[in-house]
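Our preliminary data section would be incomplete without showing what the modeling component actually yields. Below, a chain of 194 amino acids is followed by its predicted structure, encoded as tokens that our downstream tools consume directly.
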Amino acid sequence: MSADSELSSVLNRRQQINDALENGVEVKHTYRVVNIYTEFHEFSRKEIKEYQATFSKYDVGKDGFLDLAELKIMMEKLGAPQTHLGLKGMIAEVDEDKDGKISFREFLLIYRKARAGELVSDSGLGQLARLTEINVDEVGVNGAKNFFEAKIEQQLRTNKFHDEIRQEQEEKRRMEEERILRRQQFQQRAAVFQ
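Predicted structure:
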């Protein structure tokens, strides 16, 4: 899409909204409730949290979107600078709602496409996915390598998130118990000085 046609489509849409509002027609915003963990079931909770941290790191405006300038800074810091048109092309490839920005959900689409082999490795999105990809061995998540592993993973998928949530809760409980124990030890030592 050329810059002129992009600008013209945005202005036409804005004009349609303004005309509707002037005529007293209510313009309803369409919102889609998305549960990231269920929609992107191919990623573990830990991976999604890592992707969220990466996204938040470059979302300088803290508006929940990566705009053109933020994407430009991100690509430069990753060592793969892109042209203005290259950045627009990157956004257009995953921008499902056509708002000219990348939401976190659209950001996850980059990694979904990368895993499915749908990205050209030399493309901007291919470089982005490769440079920010989580080391699967380090995270401890193994993808399905053959049909049987994929079937087993599919059956266990519902339990995977429950197990991860349980592990997180156990870790929080353990940390709280350690904090209480340290506090008791401190109070015992402080009692010696009283």
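Residues 94 and 106 are 6 Å apart (CA to CA). DSSP finds nine helices and two strands in the chain. Preliminary results of this kind motivate Aim 1 of the renewal.
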